[in-house]
Specification:
The protein has a single domain, classed as Sandwich (Immunoglobulin-like). 11% of the residues lie in helices and 41% in strands.
């Protein structure tokens, strides 16, 4: 391989890989909102725990009725003062008596962003997912 081809290959890999590293390293983010929803047809207990480093910031269990049932019950919105502080967070969520939590890291390791909305959803059939959105609606506030 000649020098020009070698440099083109190395620079191409470096450039292509640079975006993948955006969420890795010393970067921090804040959690604009943490929402619990129940999209199943029966009530579930959802437990959420959030940590930053070795510090446990939050742990709470909620009985969450199906969305649209009950008195204005369209889920649970968690609002805590620590959510305004940028950091490297770990969000864990358990559905009912599950032993193993779903876990997400904020900021995400595979994409950039300095502010996230996190949704914990009980899905039809009794399983849990935890999607995150960088640049969520509440991110413009701070």
């Amino acid at each position: 391989m000649n020098r020009r081809s070698y440099l083109a290959a190395v620079l191409g890999v470096g450039t292509a890989g640079s975006g993948c590293l955006a969420g890795v390293g010393g970067e921090t983010a804040r959690i604009a909102d943490l929402t619990l929803l129940n999209l199943d047809d029966r009530t579930h207990r959802i437990t959420v725990a959030v940590g930053r480093g070795d510090e446990r910031l939050y742990r709470e269990s909620f009985s969450v009725a199906p969305v649209g049932e009950g008195e204005g019950d369209d889920g649970v919105l968690v609002e805590e003062a620590w959510m305004d502080d940028p950091g490297r967070y770990v969000v864990r969520a358990w559905l009912d008596d599950a032993e193993t939590p779903e876990e997400r890291r904020v900021p995400s390791e595979n994409r950039g962003g300095n502010c996230y909305g996190v949704v914990v959803r009980a899905r039809e059939g009794g399983w849990l997912d935890v999607p995150m959105e960088d640049g969520a609606a509440g991110c413009g506030d701070g």
